[in-house]
Amino acid sequence: MRAAGLAGTMLYGAAIVWMYAAQPQTVAEVTGGFTSTIGVYRIDQQAFDDGLAFFRRDQFDEARAALARADPAGRDALTQFYIAYTYYRQGWGRVYNDDALFKSGLAAVDRAILLAPDHRLVVDDAAIGIHTADELRAELQRGLTHDASDFNPLRLIRPRR
Predict the structure, then answer these.
(1) How far apart, in whole angstroms, are the C-alpha atoms of residue 88 and residue 84?
(2) From CA 154, how far away is CA 17, in angstroms rounded?
(3) DSSP output for 61-101
(4) What are the angstrom distances between the C-alpha of 71 and each of 3, 12, 35, 112?
(5) Alpha carbons 89 and 86: distance in angstroms, whole number
(6) 20 to 30 A from 42, CA-CA: which of 69, 71, 130, 152?
(7) 33 touches 60 (CB < 8 A)
């Protein structure tokens, strides 16, 4: 009886420490964190496929909503990569970039890098121009910097990746 009480107390203490360290904001993040810890977390594949379909049609708000529904706990690296990519695509402009969208994209790609095995994420998708999380992070950071190259007229013909 005492051993069961000690085990229960230790399990409860570990849960409190995890909650303090992870600081989940929603119940989905709590359950996703626990299932991810024991290796049984899965995304909603149908919602992910819907998000990719929206992404390919340049419907970025809809894509983010579907991808967020696919990964409510924010624990899947690939889904977080595509969420970051939607921010990049929507915020990219020939004359200027939307800093707010790029900052949100940077936060999402940082989550993707943290979640990826060995913190390295390579996406094999022929429909996109950026295939690694590191490249996407560099593009987003480059878009947030302001320097003399922003006034280069050749910037108007640069391609969106």
Answers:
(1) 6
(2) 53
(3) HHHHHHHHHH-TTS--HHHHHHHHHHHHHHH--SS---HHH
(4) 38, 26, 13, 12
(5) 5
(6) 130
(7) no
